[in-house]
Amino acid sequence: MGDETLYIGVDLGTFRSVMVSSDGHDEKVLTVIGTPKDQIAKGFLKRDVLFGEEALKNRLALNLFRPLEHGVIKDTAEDKKFIAHFITNIIGLGDPEDYDRVVAVIGAPAEASHVDKTAIFDAAAGSVNACMIISEPFAVAYALDKIEHSLVVDIGAGTTDLCRVYGTVPTPLDQMHINSAGDKIDGAIIAEIQKKYAGAQITKDMARRWKEDYSFVGNSEPDEPIIVDFSINGKAMSLDITDCIRDACEIIVDPIVSSVKELIAGSNPEYQDAFRRNIILAGGGSGIHGLGDMIEHRLADLGDVEVLTVEDPLELGAMGGLRLAMEVPEDMWKNLTLAHR
């Protein structure tokens, strides 16, 4: 394979990142990095750096780092070093050593600044020959063949990214992001439960798991009450958190609706009807039961509105990046000097 090019699409997420490649690799990795706390831990783990689920599994022996915050690289030398390690690791899962040339399209938040993009380019420089950074919601639209007058709402962990798409690379004016996303729901779940049950002891990981298993809004609640196990002042309990889950999930609805209205109102009036009829709900948060219907209902005052919820929210961004990598002309790539290959 030495004379072939490996094409890679990456969706770099605050909580989870996805990599797909032209030779069939499909990897999902939690965006977390761990380093041993001391020499005893280093001897036990037999590695200097651990990634993803393996890092979480051994977190008591590690210093954990989540180098992305609100969808962008934290602005510290340490976090930039660790995100470079992370990108090297996730691209390495595609066996790039079998190829002479490796190119990657990396999904970035909708309003990623020039500084953010430079940090991502720098992080990728040791792993790929050429790189392109695109808006994550644009990658979703490209994967779905929905680049003709669509409005993508990509609900991630750190941010919800919105983008008007109309057949070309979107400009900054076509995009926006808000911090009402999965992490905010997790915090709200904890707050709602502790308000209902004084002394409730709940971690963010517990709240995230309950969100992933039970999330809903409006009248889309499950047939049975949501009963979960947690401690109150150290005492084991099994309690109903149905209303807590609903109230927490609904906190992202109004900010999304307001942002969609702003993007539609700011578009060319001749195409506003097309945007209203082609709103795409993507990202992990799109899996909240009833969310698409509620957003559609809240937008009804704009006229006829259609909201499509995607079927495979976790991989679409990376798949769109891979497709772009294989289709865009060479002059759109930023060539990088490989430092470590």
Question: pLDDT average, as an integer?
Answer: 89
**How many domains would you count in the coordinates?**
3
How would you sum up the global shape?
flat
Amino- and carboxy-terminal Cα gap = 16 Å
CATH topology of the largest domain: Nucleotidyltransferase, domain 5
Helix content: 25-40%
For the record, what CATH class of the largest domain applies?
A: Alpha Beta
The CATH superfamily of the largest domain is known as ATPase, nucleotide binding domain
Strand content: 15-25%
What's the story with the biggest beta sheet? 6 strands, mixed
Low-confidence stretches: 337-341
Question: Can you characterise this structure?
Answer:
- This protein is an alpha+beta fold and 341 residues long.
- It folds into three domains: 5-31 and 66-136 and 316-335, Nucleotidyltransferase, domain 5 (2-Layer Sandwich), CATH 3.30.420.40; 141-180 and 253-309, Nucleotidyltransferase, domain 5, CATH 3.30.420.40; 182-250, 2-Layer Sandwich (Nucleotidyltransferase, domain 5), CATH 3.30.420.
- The protein is 35% helix and 25% strand.
- It has helices at 39-45, 52-57, 77-92, 114-124, 136-143, 182-196, 204-214, 242-249, 253-265, 272-276, 291-298, 316-327; strands at 5-11, 16-21, 26-30, 33-36, 50-51, 62-65, 68-69, 72-73, 101-108, 130-135, 150-155, 160-165, 175-178, 200-201, 227-232, 235-240, 279-282, 307-309, 334-335.
- It has a six-stranded mixed beta sheet with strand order 3-2-1-9-10-19. Strands 13-12-11-17-18 form a five-stranded mixed beta sheet, sandwiched between helices. Strands 5-4-6 form a three-stranded antiparallel beta sheet.
- The model is unreliable at 337-341 (pLDDT under 50).
